[in-house]
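=== RUN LOG ===
request id: a7f3
mode: sequence -> structure
chains: 1
length: 261
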Amino acid sequence: MPRYEEIAAELREQITRGDYRAGDTLPRYEDLTTTYGVGRGVIASAIGLLEREGLVRPVKKRGLVVLDRPERRRVMRGQTVTRDPDRGYVFPAASHAGEPWQLHGRAVAARVPAPERVAELLDIPVGTPTMRRHRVTSPAGEPPFQVVDTWISDAALADAPQAGEPSTGPGGYLDRLEESGHGPLTWTEHIRVRMPSAEEAAALEISAAMPVMETVIVGASARDGSAVEVTTRAIPADRVELVSPLSRDESAAWPTQPVSA
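=== RESULT ===
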């Protein structure tokens, strides 16, 4: 085992058994190099492993902070969009039935330049000022779990101006879009893993070395099939897993036929 992996394993064990608790800081680089008798590069490689595992993150003026690690949550795929009479549309999520969630900071609605991914899905030039509804949420009592950004096209906003206001009314922005002539919306979901932006890493309180799982839901208008809203969720990769039930194709129906040589 390379020396940096040995050091990472020892530090990982110390964190796991509680020698360093969430919010504590690891020894400084200089102290670690002295303790283990290695150069700074070896320590940097060891810390890099721990960062990618979501165990620590560097915090300016504090050092290497040990992170809280709540349970990994499961998101069942292959489910349908449901309707809650008190909230409106509900999409498959990592929350449990009736579980309270909290907002970290405040929700912000403002026009900001559309990034490449959003611009592609809304079919607009990259950097076009676009209405973004931004919030950071988590289950109550847990550290930030997801950054959620909803981008609404200018055409849709012209039809449903309340969708861009701080208070979107009962049912939220989706009901306002449907009421304005775009309903019933249809949705397509994209899922990928990527590295976080600096803004996302700061909001989620994770290391920039920790990948995030991104889900993107695109809402299309019934009027002409164009995308009127794009909602992205960025979740630290160590906080969630996707679970999909698999069904048998007709060709795999039981009892199966023997495999020919």
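=== NOTES ===
The helical segments are 3-16, 29-36, 40-52, 116-122, 154-159, 172-182, 198-204.
The chain has two domains: 3-66, 73-243.
=== END ===
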